ABC transporter ATP-binding protein (Winogradskyella litoriviva), 242 residues
Amino acid sequence: MSIHNVIQVEGLTKKFGDFTAVNAISFKVEKGEIFGFLGANGAGKTTAMKMLIGISIPSSGKATVAGFDVFTHAESIKKSIGYMSQKFALYDDLTVKENITFFGGIYGLSRKRIRQKSAVLIEELGLEKVANKLVGALPLGWKQKLSFSVSMIHDPKIVFLDEPTGGVDPITRRQFWEMIYKAANQGITVFVTTHYMDEAEYCDRVSIMVNGKIEALDTPKKLKEQFKVANMNDVFLKLARG
């Protein structure tokens, strides 16, 4: 793994009036790393991610993503990353092919490149038989995997995944993580938020947020050793209890 940090965060803070949603967090993420951004619902994970992907302006602190400053180069960040939102992002009333074509165009790919990418993506996902069906008719697991693939259609340096496996069955969750491993092996940095603590085991490193602050950050193995527990769920419970 390269020692080059593609995400650097220092004292990043987001306030909404008197409420501090993200409280002076600091961390670095390396190229090709699977970085888990963990915490209970409401811990501040999604708010922090929105600052990093350039759609929410921080209240204070510093951060660069893919070499671009979150305060001054938000549009450049958006072009350099992939993003899969917590809520399913594709269009139910378009077919699989039409969704791929639409988002390929949004990301600035040529028509030729979109055709090439579309063919590869449909084959890899095994969607040949449903390529001309409306996305709304697909099972949730297929939708999630398609959404992930579309988020990387423009070969981004970093892909941000916000609760990507929420609501899917265990088998689909495992398949989704196999796709994440494949992306990381290709040098893509994967920044993933989740409240499933077992998924922390799949990450190279994890940070755990509690009430807007990062309370722990290390490899899953070292965190379990530090807290003298057998699994990441117990690490989280110890932190949540203070």
